[in-house]
């Protein structure tokens, strides 16, 4: 993505729970979601669970700007969750950064 992008930043964060750790991973979400939704620049922060694979958790995020996303990335609650996710997931948190296509 180029530096010229000035619109909202969309993230899709995917996590695959280790077998037997699905509920522990889900239990870690409410604190993360509540704290993140209070952050300046957070437009959307919604967790989803796979219908065909309940061990798959996906977070859909929309941030007002790159600066807001950087602040979120440095937040204590996200860092704490990421440490926990490293123990509970197969490959940690996989993040895809997106921008809306203006048609």
TrEMBL record:
Keywords: Monooxygenase, Oxidoreductase. The keyword Oxidoreductase applies. GO terms for molecular function: monooxygenase activity. InterPro entries: ABM_dom, AI-2_Isomerase_LsrG, Dimeric_a/b-barrel. It comes from the Bacteria. Residues 9-98 form the ABM domain. Gene3D superfamilies: 3.30.70.100. It holds the Pfam family ABM. This is Antibiotic biosynthesis monooxygenase. It comes from Streptomyces fumanus.
């Amino acid at each position: 993505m180029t530096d010229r992008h000035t619109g909202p930043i969309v993230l899709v964060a995917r996590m695959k729970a280790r077998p037997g750790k699905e509920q522990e991973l889900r239990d870690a979400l409410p604190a993360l979601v509540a704290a993140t939704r209070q952050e300046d620049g957070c437009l959307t922060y919604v967790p989803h669970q796979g219908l065909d694979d309940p061990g798959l958790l996906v977070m859909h995020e929309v941030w007002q700007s790159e600066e807001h996303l950087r602040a979120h990335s440095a937040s204590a609650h996200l860092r704490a969750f990421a440490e926990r996710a490293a123990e509970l997931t197969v490959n940690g948190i996989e993040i895809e950064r997106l921008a809306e296509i203006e048609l």
